Amino acid sequence: MKFSPHINKISNKRKPGQRSASSFNRGDDYYKLSEPEISLLKEILSIPTFYGNEHILTRFIKDYAKGKGYITQPDRMGNVYITKGNIGKMDYVPLLNAHSDSVFRDHLELIKNNQRVDIVIDNDVIKGFHPITKKQMGVGMDDKNGVFISLMVLDKIKKGKIIFTTSEEIGMQGARYSVKRKRNEFYSNISYILALDSPAINVFTESFFDGPIFNRKSEFFIKSEKIIKKHITKPQFDHHPWTCMVQLRNYLHVQGFNCPASYYNYHTGSEYSLLSGIQTTINMCINLIKELGFKTKYELTK
Fold it and tell me: pTM of the prediction?
């Protein structure tokens, strides 16, 4: 995701491993990631990627989705379109979105040499290390965390769609390509958008450079707010420059959220994430989808 320096400064105040007890509100139905799912997270984070060089990650995504029996289609830009479930003509489904590129140029050497980032989880904190030097390095948790969250949410709902977009960091190029090609069959019956590309454990996007992404007075927001506050008791709604949701919102004219993907110090070599934050966003998205249902298109009107 593209952020202003002001946003970056605010979002990095929390120290690794430190989180407010008020940030999470876990009920009896709180879903906890299994060991195989945590291993999947580490595998996704280990894959090197750079804008224009997302092919290893996109191939992994396609193989995972096909293994689950989902309908999976790529395009020439490397975007991946995934559909799950029997979607009837009268149904509306959520569209999940994350991007597969990163800003880390040093990943190009790893791609060339078929190497992976070493991922370590220690007391909830996730970090990446260079496979040779063993020094901490940027992972691309912006937005590989979002890739993982999207897949986990789709696994746990009965029907829905994902678009994984490429080259977001250099102007949403994958998303621009997708909407210009007007893949009407894939984009039909979209109810709302859940993008997974906002930092920290409680930061949501309310507006981008060209306007809001939801209406606070709408049924969509009123229904969603109670679910969000059940999981995150102090949600923060901010203005961000852009992410791929800008292109998707302007094409589909539906509301949505850009949800916290639990990454910190993004775009730096000291990047890290909190496993508990990733789990919380997965739970929140699953329950948002349950609450919003599959029969309504939540249009974005001025």
Answer: 0.92
